Inverse folding.
């Protein structure tokens, strides 16, 4: 059963509150550990502002520098892709999928040649071949394994 309009409104308000709190903590110098930087990056990744995506990418890079984390490596790639899309540029890692069951899914626009699969693998991003398989899985209405994104 789907959420009511009121429930979606409450969720959106909580998201804005969480985003504002994360920015306040960041500006006050309250991010210390790799997890702090990662958590703030994850919250900013779900904003709708280009500058928040770019800041999320930077915070995630700090998280990686502080602690070698597979989640942070992937989020670093995803935040850059989301930022690029938000400024009408092609993503370079292929982490962002759009679409629906009726019209199909895509990770376009995507410059799949700028970044090599070796770099994708180093950042725990699926290779372009795996991404093509994932798109077929999406098209067939099946869930993609979490290791693929």
């Amino acid at each position: 059963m789907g959420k009511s309009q009121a429930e979606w409104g409450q969720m959106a308000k909580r998201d804005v509150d969480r985003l504002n709190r994360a920015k306040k903590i960041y500006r006050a110098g309250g991010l210390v550990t790799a997890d702090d930087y990662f958590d703030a990056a994850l919250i900013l990744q779900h904003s709708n502002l280009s500058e928040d995506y770019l800041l999320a990418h930077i915070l995630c890079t700090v998280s990686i520098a502080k602690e070698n984390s597979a989640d942070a490596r992937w989020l670093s790639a995803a935040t850059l892709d989301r930022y690029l899309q938000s400024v009408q540029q092609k993503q370079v890692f292929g982490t962002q999928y759009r679409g629906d069951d009726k019209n199909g899914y895509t990770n376009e626009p995507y410059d799949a040649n700028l970044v090599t699969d070796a770099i994708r693998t180093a950042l725990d991003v699926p290779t372009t071949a795996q991404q093509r398989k994932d798109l077929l899985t999406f098209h067939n209405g099946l869930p993609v394994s979490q290791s693929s994104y």
Summary: Helices lie at 5-27, 34-45, 50-66, 70-86, 117-122, 128-139. Strands lie at 98-100, 104-106. The longest helix spans residues 5-27.
